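Dear colleague,

As promised, here are the two records you asked about, laid out in our usual form so they can be pasted straight into your sheet.

NAME FIELD: protein one
SEQUENCE, THEN STRUCTURE:
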Amino acid sequence: MMRYAVGLVCMCVMISAETPPARAMGDDDAKPTGTIDVTVSFNKSQPAFEGWGTSLCWWAHGVGDWPDDKLDELIDWIGNPETGLGYTIFRYNIGGGDDPTHHHMRRHADIPGFRAGPDVPYDWNADAKQRRVLEKLVARVDKPIVEAFSNSPPYWMTISGCASGNVGGVSNLRPEMFDAFADYLADVVKHYRDERGITFRSVEPLNEPNAGWWTSGHNQEGCHFSTAEQGRIILALRRALDARGLREVQISASDANSIDGCLANMEAYDSRTIEALGQINTHSYWGIRRAALRKFAARHGKRLWQSESGPMQCRGDQMDAALFMAECIVNDLNGMQPAAWLEWQVVSEGNWGCIHIDEETRELRKSPSFFAFSAFTRAVRPGDVLLDVAPAEVVAAYSSARKEIVVVAVNATKKRRAYRCRFKGLEAHAERATMVNAFEGGGSEAIEFRGDAVVVDVAPKSVVTLRVAGASFVEPTKASSSKQ
């Protein structure tokens, strides 16, 4: 039985870099173009969502020497769950370090390595700027999760002598250096745990390893690994971690550029390699086999992360990029149902990143993506459970701690759109429903219940968050019996 009560709130987040005035509705968008019926239901086998996050390279290397007051302001924009993005997951880049005579890396992408040669001791102060940002983030957020990852081995372990790749984009780690590279990563993880008090829950030795664009003289670190070589470094890293008493540190892979590529890697790994993994990471720039990857991870008992994404395929402006990414989040969360969703760099420029900065004045600016992302990240929090949605037009989640259901809907079109949401197996207790537009002075308006459903009217080019408070999901048998 469905009973609605107090506590249904719909926040309409109009995407803009600045707070816009209330908009007048024209004749062309006054009415929804059509109503989409959406059924939201609880899947008790779905694990809890772990959260949202970002990698730290390259932006943290760029801002790590800022004064405390300015850096703390940036950290709050990233970590504050009420006024910021509420990120709690951070991927720290273990830099390989390039040949010091090379000068081809893009700005801030020249992440220092900790060891300049095979006979040179570790310099644990080499990456002080990125480390400072990591430490501030870990101190700022509640229950942070941190992962270490590598883009390339140190240049002196490579075939080309360059940390950006090999000639022709082929494999670049010297065959005799697999164990040395694994030792390097494990040493860094151990140092951070023992000396810095930061425990990496997982470490990823690969980044887009199937790609052929990692070439010498490129503008960022990268290294191609064949599928067989991926398995070899995963097993070598497992041995290196275990030898240092780091058995609790998991290995993630393969961080392929596409969902389909990640699945192909997983299907090609032998049983020993799969067993050595604790987590499957994929980027979602490309690919469509979300459900197949989700099923593979579930079948093998592996946690699944969407570990990197961004508006690579978007050719519009910042508004277009924000809405493009909002739709990407909807597709990824429904198709893969990952335990976490991370963007590439929270601080960037152009269409990328939620936060833009003026490096001279250190002024911060929220890009349109900040508003689009925060509609999701403030609503779906760590510990919530993603709900099954049919058709997969919106994102929905349930919090047993808050007794709240949230629905996030995206409308990237120029016409109004409406979603009629029905909650299967839901018991809720409410007396009214309201809609709050975050950019129109905090005012609210009533939302009408129509039968057993609530209709969410989404303005053009906007993201809407629906909140149903005082809610709980019940077993279908209980829900059915309550109607009799």
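NAME FIELD: protein two
SEQUENCE, THEN STRUCTURE:
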Amino acid sequence: MTRAVSPHPLRLAPSILAADHACLVDGLQKVEALPIEWLHLDIMDGHFVPNLSFGPQTVAALRERNRDLLFDTHLMLANPHEHVEAFAKAGANLISIHVEPDYPVAETLQRIRAYGCRTGLVLNPATPAAAATPFLEAVDLILVMTVWPGFGGQSFLPETLGTMSELHKAREETGLSFRLEVDGGIDLATASECRRHGADTFVAGTAFFKAPHPQAFFQAIQEPEAD
């Protein structure tokens, strides 16, 4: 296949969900030790996804420790429209919401923007790329879940590559500039495949925090050799 080329520089966004929850500061410091610009925060409610993580208080505490990282905040919530204000005030820079629940998606994206945050839209693995079409002009980022959300450490679902390709094509055809993010089972091999399909932003939890050499992992993701 022809390699898709994103208009954006590549970004690694380590997911703090994979760090030691008894001492998240250690995980934050592991990110701070490298020239990483994004930190991914997975917010789970136990309803939309079968797991619980943390809330705006934790985001605010991490923000107190670091003022520079872009907090890429992924709301896996059944009712995200009721919580965007709390996460914006806690220090989120980018707030991504799922397209699947029944709530006012367009209005919620507008509210996120009004709070001074970048906007993101998330698609689950079985959700077609077309579900994002009505919102393309309203988002700074589209996140394609490459596993079913809820738990870290899952295996990458290759069927999601087609969704990436469709979204990249839509980005080119419309002249829009949203980032294309991927999350779930991302390691060096799967990140390379995702790049070929237009992805430019890579959420890595287990692969980053368990890497024997995090700097080498970061460099390979964000400064890859020619594929």
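A couple of things worth noting about protein two: The beta strands are 11-14, 38-44, 70-76, 94-98, 118-123, 141-145, 179-183, 201-204. The mean pLDDT is 94.

Best,
R.
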